[in-house]
Amino acid sequence: MGRELELIGRIAALVSDHPSVVEGIGDDAAVLDAPPRQHLVVTADTLVEGVHFELQAGTGWPRTGHSAADVGVKAAAVNLSDMAAMGAVPRWAFLSVAVPRRIEIEFISRFAESLSRTLESYGCLLAGGDTVSSPGPLVVTLTVVGTTDGGKWLSRNGARPGDLVLCSGWLGESAAGLQLIRTPRLARLVPPAVRRRLEARHLRPEPRLMLGRALLREGLATSCIDASDGPATDLAHLAQRSGVKIVLHRGRLPVSRALAVAARVFGSTPLEWILSGGEDFELLWTAPRDMAARSAALAGSILGRKAAIIGEVAEGSGVFLSHAGREVEISFQGYEH
Amino acid sequence: MGRELELIGRIAALVSDHPSVVEGIGDDAAVLDAPPRQHLVVTADTLVEGVHFELQAGTGWPRTGHSAADVGVKAAAVNLSDMAAMGAVPRWAFLSVAVPRRIEIEFISRFAESLSRTLESYGCLLAGGDTVSSPGPLVVTLTVVGTTDGGKWLSRNGARPGDLVLCSGWLGESAAGLQLIRTPRLARLVPPAVRRRLEARHLRPEPRLMLGRALLREGLATSCIDASDGPATDLAHLAQRSGVKIVLHRGRLPVSRALAVAARVFGSTPLEWILSGGEDFELLWTAPRDMAARSAALAGSILGRKAAIIGEVAEGSGVFLSHAGREVEISFQGYEH
User: Nearest by CB to B42, which of A32, A51, A82?
Assistant: First the structure.
C-alpha cells in the first residue's frame, strides 16, 4: 500500500485548487459545481503502452518513444481533441492509471504534472485521480467532463450534399513523425529541423479547442470530427452518421514541406500518411458552400493559417479520393494502432 | 480494426436509450442533459485482471474466479458504492476497456451486458464506452457521473468526538469468499450453502445506494465511507480527514454465522477478515450519539437488518481496536490487492 498511497498522494497534490472543485481527491468521489442550464459533454479515452505509445527513458534526442511528459500531453490532447470536435468547453478531468512495478514513482509524477499542466493550459482542471498497480503495461484512462456553450454542440451527423469539407492543418505529419522515431537509421537522413518538427507533431499534439468553439459560435460548421485515425476513417464515420458521400480531391490535400522532405527520404509519396496516418488531431468539418470561405478564414484568424478546402459532400455513402477524373473508395483505410 | 469496431458496436448497442443521453456512442463525446442547479459527483475506478479479479471460464461451480458477468457486476458495484458513500444519485456511466487478444468478443459482450444491467438496476445509464486492444491483462475503467440531492452530500470529514460509528452489514464475508475461491481443497470442507453465500458476497457485491441517500436526506450521518479496503484502512481515511480518533469495540463487531463456520474450517478467527478483508462494500458512517439508534433503525428499514454500532469517535487520531480494557492501533492494516 505504501507505493500506491505515495502515487495517489503525488496525483492528489496536482488536483486543482479551484472553486468549481468542491471536493477533490480524498473523498469517495469528486464534487463539482457545474454551471446551470448547460448540457454536459463527456469523453473517456484509454492509452496503452506498446499500443498507443512506447516509452523512452528521459527526454533525450534522438527520440525513441514518449517521455513521461509526452504521455501526459498525449492523454490530455486525445481527450481535449474530442471536446474540440464537439465545440465543447472542457472543465474537469479524471485520471485513472494502472502502473507496473518497473515504472518509478518519479515517472508517474512527471507524467501527471505534464498532464495537469496541459489540461490547465486549455482551461481544464484535474479534479480527481486513482492509481492501481498492474502486472501489465502502463494503461492511462482520462475522462473529461465539459459543458456546451448555450445548449448547442457540433456533431458528426449534420453534413449535407453540396457542403464542402475543410481541414484545419497539415495532415500526415504525426504519422511521419512516428515513422522517424521508429526507424532512426533512415531518420538520420532527414534534416534535424524537419525531423524535430515532425516528431513534435507526433509527441506533442495540440487540440483545436478554440477553433471548435468558434465554428460552433459562428455557425460555420454543419458537422465536425477530429482527425485521430486519418481522414479515410474519420470522414467515413462522419459520412456514415450524416448519411452522405464524401469526395476528397487529391490535388487539394495540403502537403507540408516537412512531410514532402520526409517522404523523399523514405522513397514514398506523402499520400498514405495524409489519408491513413492518424493522430494529427486537426479538425475536419463541413460547411455550406456559400460559407466555406468564411469558415476557412475563421480558422486562419485562430491558427494563423487558413483552413484547406479538401473536398465536398454528395448524395450516397462512403469516402472517395478523386484524381484526374477518377474516384477510388478509401473508406476506413485508417491507422491501426 | 474489424475486432475493435465489432467490440465498440457491441457496447454501443448497450448504451441506454434515454432522453438524458442526448448523444450516445457514435459522436466524439456523449452529450448529457443534466438537471439544473445540482452539483456533479464523479468517481472513476480501475479493475485490473490478476490484481482485482481472476477470470474463470463460464459460470460453473465450484468457482475459480470471476465470470464475464461477475466482472461487470464488480465494475459497477465498486463505482456505485463510492456514489452510495457520498449519498449521491448515480446517473451516467462511461466504460473504457483494454482488451487482450486472447479474450473473445463474446466475453466482452457478456461483461458489458452485465455491467449495463447492474447499472440500470440502480438507475444509472451506460452513456458511453471505448475499447482498445492491449498486450497485457484485461483492464476495466468505469467513470460514473452523478448528482446530489439538493446540494448536499456525505463526506469523510464530518466525524466529531462523541459520535458513534455504524456499519450497514456483515464485514469480512467478501474476504472469506475470496479465500474459498482461492483454496478449493479447503473450501470443500465448508457446507455448500455457506460457501455459496460467501462467494456471492465476493463475486456479486451490492452497493448501498438507497441507504446513503436516506442517511443524507434524514440528516442521520455526520460522515460516511464505503468499506472497500477493510474498516482498519477505510476508517483510518475517515479519521484522518475528520481529524479524530476512532475506537472500535471488538465485542460489537458483528460476525455472521457463515463467517464463523468458514473461520472454523480455516482454523482462524473471523477478526482478520472483518478488520482488514475489504471489498464488502457496506457503508461505514458516524452519527451523533443521540441519533445513532435512529440511524441504525433507518438502515434496518432499508436493508431488513438494523445497522451495528461498532465503535465511537474520540479526540486524537488513528483507528484502534478496544478489547478487555486495552486499545491496539490498527490504522491502515488493510487489504492489499
Answer: A32
In B, minimum Cα distance to A129 occurs at: B44
B198 HSE (CA, 13 A, CB side)? 32
- Asked whether the predicted pLDDT for residue A193 surpasses 80, the reply is yes
> Which three cell numbers mark A269?
509519396
Beta strand ranges found along A69-138 (DSSP E): 89-100, 125-134
DSSP A307: P
Domain match, A73 and A41 both: yes
Encode pLDDT of A138-177 as tens digits. Answer: 999 999 999 987 778 999 999 999 999 999 999 999 999 9
pLDDT digit string (tens) for B120-149? 999 999 998 889 999 999 999 999 999 987
Q: B334 pLDDT band (50/70/90 cuts)?
A: low
Chains A & B: contacts with CB separation below 8 Å: 218
Name the residue type at position A260.
A
Residue A216 carries which side chain, given as an amino acid letter?
Answer: L
Q: A86 and B28 in contact by Cβ < 8 A?
A: yes
pLDDT surpassing 70 at residue A334: no
Residues from chain B contacting residue A21 (CB–CB below 8 Å): none
Q: Name the grid cell of A22.
A: 468542491
Q: How many Å apart are CA A156 and CA A228, to the nearest integer?
A: 14
Mean pLDDT in residue range A199-218: 96
Query: Could you read off the pLDDT of B166-199 as tens digits, one per residue?
Result: 999 999 999 999 999 999 888 999 999 999 999 9
Range B248-260 burial, b when 16+ CB lie within 10 A, else e? bebeebbbbebbe
Quote the radius of gyration of chain B (alpha carbons, Å): 20
Write down which residue in A122, A147, A172 finishes a domain: A147
Whether the model pTM is above 0.90 = yes
Nearest CA distance, A330 vs chain B (angstrom): 15
Q: Which of B46, B128, B226 faces A98 most closely, judged by CB atoms?
A: B46
Q: Which residues make Cβ contacts (< 8 Å) with residue A199, sequence separation at least 6?
A: A63, A177, A180, A181
| Partner-chain residue, chosen from B40, B82, B96, that has the shortest CB–CB distance to A32 | B40
Whether the upstream peptide bond of residue A231 has omega within 30° of 0, thus cis, is no
Does residue A201 sit in the same domain as residue A303?
yes
Closest CA to B144 of B108, B110, B99, B95: B95
Q: Residues B129, B87: one domain?
A: yes
SS3 B266: helix
Find the closest chain A residue to B37 by CA distance.
A36
Q: How far apart are CA B4 and CA B99, in angstroms?
A: 9
Residue B34's domain comprises 2-147
The strand order across the sheet containing A21-23 reads A21-23, A30-33, B39-48, B139-147, B89-100, B125-134
Q: What is the ipTM of this complex?
A: 0.90
Q: How confident is the model at residue B279 (pLDDT cuts 50, 70, 90)?
A: very high
Best residue of B27, B130, B235, B281 to probe chain A, by most A CBs closer than 10 Å: B27
Residues A186 and A261 in one domain: yes
Single-letter amino acid, residue B285: W
Of all residues in chain B, the one with the smallest CA distance to A156 is: B27
Answer yes or no: is pLDDT of A337 > 60: no
CA separation for the pair A215, B278 (Å, rounded): 50
A283/A183 same-domain check: yes
